Amino acid sequence: MTEKEKMIAGLPYNANNPELVALRRDVRVKLAAYNSAGYVTETISAMLAGILGETGKGSWIEPPFYCDYGFNIKTGKDFYMNFDCVILDVAPVTIGDNVMCGPKVQLLAATHSLDPEERNFSGTELGKPITIGNRVWIGAGVIVCPGVTIGDEAVIGAGSVVTRDVPPRVFAAGNPCKVIKAI
After folding, report:
1. Known catalytic residue: 112?
2. What is the pTM of this model?
3. To 10 degrees, the CA torsion angle through 137, 10, 59, 161?
C-alpha cells in the first residue's frame, strides 16, 4: 500500500512521504486563494468544489478555512460552516445534508499512537474517520475528535469537546461532551 492508501484506511502512515507533502502543499495554495477571494460568488463556490472531495449543492464554508488535504472531505447539500474552521482530513470526513457549524469548529480526524515508542516525531501518524449526520447543528468552538460519529438531528453545544459518538436527536455539550437531553 502507498502511504496515502494507508492514511485513508486509518493505518499508521508516514506523513513525511513526498506524495503527501506535495498534496498538502497543493491544497494550501488553493486555500490561500480561497481564503483571500472574498464573499460568496460562483467563482469562489467553484474554488471550494476544487478543494473538497465532494461538495453538495448549496454548501458553503466561510473563509478563512483550513484543511490537510481536502479530497477526504465530503459534504451533503446545504452544508454551512462559519469562519475560521479547521478540518484535519487525513481520514474521511463525511458531513450530511443541512448541517450547520459555528465559527472556530474543528473536525480532527488526525491522531497519533498512545504508545510513546511509536509516537516519536518520526512522521508516523494515523487517522480515524468522522461522520456527521443530517440536520446537525454544531455550535461555535466545538472540537470533534478522531473516530466520532454524530447522529442525525443532534445539536452540539458551543465549546464542547466531542470524544465519543453522539446519538441522533439529542442535545449534547461539555468537555467531554455528553448527552444533556433528548430533542
Report:
1. yes
2. 0.94
3. 20
The number of distinct structural domains making up the chain is: 1
Domain that holds residue 40: 3-182
At 10, the amino acid letter reads G
Per mean pLDDT, which range of 41-45, 46-50, 109-113, 156-160 is the poorest? 41-45
What percentage of the chain reaches a pLDDT higher than 90?
Answer: 86
Q: Name the active-site residue from 104, 112, 128, 135.
A: 112
Q: What are phi and psi of 179, to 5 degrees?
A: -65, 130
Percentage of the chain beyond pLDDT 70 is 98
Q: CATH no. for residue 26?
A: 2.160.10.10
H or E stretch covering 44: helix 42-51
